Amino acid sequence: MLLMRSVSAHLRQTSKQPLAPAQLGTLLKIGAGPCTLSELARHQAVSLPTVSRSVDMLARRGWVERTVDDTDRRQTLLGLTEQGREVLVDVKARAEQHISAKLSSMSARDQAELVNAAGLLAGVFADRSKHSG
User: Fold this and answer.
1) Fold for the domain defined by 2-125
2) Least confident among 59-68, 70-79, 113-122
3) What is the pTM of this model?
């Protein structure tokens, strides 16, 4: 949570059009592949009206578009526009630069320990079937 707070604060301070953390989460989820509003709401654990407002704002900025699902014409899919993909690439790059700058003050030994710990955490959380509980 501390890492996310630090990154979010940095992005708000350095962005021409600041994103709320939930809106960044929306961009990240949609950037991973087209999804429906319902899938997005479940992913973010929020109500449909809440996620709909976030998507509406991102659509007004020209970053998200709605299209009809070819396999089920009743479904609307959310996808990133070209501008939305550019924004997401920029946000990810600035977040990585911020984290890198913060971690650069650590000793080489502490950095190595952090990399090891991050690998252990990634392993635990990546294999949900063995560690769900």
Assistant:
1) Arc Repressor Mutant, subunit A (1.10.10)
2) 70-79
3) 0.76
